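Give me structure tokens for this 386-residue protein.
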Amino acid sequence: MSRMATIHRHRIPVPAPVTDPLTGRLVYTLVPGEAETPYFRRTCDLADGRIIANGKQDNRAALYLLEPGADSVEVLHIDPFLRILRVRASDGMLLGTIGREIVGLDVMTGEMTVFGELPAELPGVCEDVAVDGSVAFVNDMNNSRHSLQPPTSMDPADLWCWIDRPRNGSLVAYDLRHGTVTPLYVSADHFANHVDACPGDPTLLRFCTDRCEAKAQRTYTVRTDGSELRPMRLQALGEVITHEFWWADAHSVGYTYQDRRGDTTLERLPWCEYSPVPTRLGIANAAGEEIYLSDPLDTYHQHLACSPDGSLVMGDGNEGNCFVAVSPFALTETQISFTKLASISTPYVPFRGQRVNGHITRDNRWVVYNEEVGDKMHIRAVAIDL
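Here you go.
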């Protein structure tokens, strides 16, 4: 079923760039406040190469279609109840929800496809949709009145108390064509998190568990029919796999790796960014086998990501070393040599980083990212010139 969505379009100018005082490179402000690029592990590029961001303009829900290097940005005012979950890389369709409906929006034509509706009696929140719109992934997280967000103090007792809090969860696949519910992962003492449908296979899902990464298996994949639940890069106790994301081939998974086996500082320094061990980029194939592990990186990066074609890797640094940085990448080379492109002044928050959420454009020419100034988050762009 389809219907036309009401979309109001206009453009806003992009001001002249300014020179980054620490790198000497030109930085463009594409959107001055009230918008953010999506979380780093989410696809966000349209079929025409633009990157999409969501936020507000004039107190109205808005989408920003970002084209670094252009003199303006297109703004779309849309249904304020549209919650975007992903952008489909093949054609740029936005997949998301409006209330209990699962929908797809073509921002070029304004046509909205309704894939189906979640039944009222199904508990939980729709966290993602299969790339073909056939299945909704619904996560029911019971958190025993504790915050879903970790504490930001540097007191390890606070963090361990949060990690050990009572909770349980149930992740299910709801087939929008047949109305069937399939349990995928159920736990009595933790829940699934970072639910992320495979961008290249509508029958495959990746998720992580919200436990201490050094003490439990972090990442899993599972089929939408509940079969083939498998660990994505099997961990030994003390190995840390975190900040996982789909690799450019749309089937492999990239992640941050630390080896904290034998690390006596784990209890008092549970934060990855403050641990004394080096950080590496790892990649596992669809069978969960590690196929790549880099040499130690220059610093801990809150998030690592790759370009759409996999030829570039991006990092965003950590406290005291906050830069948008890019390196050439090849599976045959374990050395990753980052070039710092733009400094980040956003205050650093332990465990959460700075919400930089950088994305490399399809043509490998630009990084689009977030930077907070005062109480506003700005969307910036810097050219990739290595």
